[in-house]
Structures are given as C-alpha cells and as structure tokens.
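Chapter review: from sequence to fold.
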Amino acid sequence: MIVEMRTYQTRPGMRTRFIDIFERRTRAEHDRLGMPIAGPFLSVEDPDTFFFMRGFPDMERREAMKAHFYEGPLWKEELEKVLMPMLERYDVVVVDDPEGRIAW
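The token string follows.
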C-alpha cells in the first residue's frame, strides 16, 4: 500500500474547525473512493498542527483516486473554498507500506 503522511498547519486557532469540517464532510467520500484515513493526530507541541495518513492500493491508482476527489463536486464546489483559506501550509510525504504495518 502507498501511504501519504500528511502534515497540516492551520492559521492560528483554526485547527479544531478545520478538522471538524474535514471529518464531517470528507471521511465518507474518502471511504467511498477506497482511500482509508488514519488520524487526525494532534500535535502536542503546536496547537495549530495535526497529521493524518491516507492510503492507496498503488501509485497508479493513487493519482486517479486523488483526481477523482479533488476534481469532484464536493471539493471543487464546497470544500476547497472553505478549507484552503484555513491553512498556513501543508506537506505530504509519500511512503510505501509493503508489509502492511499500518492498521487501517
């Protein structure tokens, strides 16, 4: 499995709101598309930072699944304009989990 290790830093004080919207509005769509999510994991050192992991069967399907999500109506018509302004920055590191160590 291919895993994105995602780090988000929200604008000050926005972490709880961002996570609430993300959880309520995107979790079901991620599940529907076959992209499991682990997290969010809250930073204990920074009240505006959190992490989560998102899984994909392989690199080829990762690109197709991401395109389906980010070009879909939920993201394009609703969430992009709400969530993106809450972020200071985000980083993504893609790793391979060939032994299935991450329990989804």
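Two observations follow directly from the output. The chain is about 40% helix and 30% strand. The chain has a mean pLDDT of 95.
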